[in-house]
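Revision sheet: structure tokens.
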Amino acid sequence: MFHERGLRALLVEPDRHFALIARQVLYVGGIREVHHELDAIRALEVLRMHPVDFAIVSSHLPSITALELTTLIRTAPDSPNPHLPILLLLGQPTKKIVQEAMTAGVNFCVRKPLSASILLERIEYVVSAQETLTV
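Predicted:
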């Protein structure tokens, strides 16, 4: 799916087991460069050091929340990519949570347990939309 595109991802997921599953889905989809971080603070550091094409962020993070991380990516003066496509992983999505996520700047919400095909479809959508904006 993404083999020729050389996409780079940031995965922010404190659950190592779930992160392994997500990494396998990304690998099968052709995404070989995945930076995995356990918390949002470290994820921000990685974003400053390594350019990525999209981020997948768990809704349950230690330190700062996924929505706070999204807001920082979108609005911080030193943000390396304020237009970074962000997919939020939600265990129990409600209309209110999804609305808050979209207001914070999340591009898509993806429900846990993870569906490989849905995740890859959402990645394709947000990356294609971003490529259209930068052309």
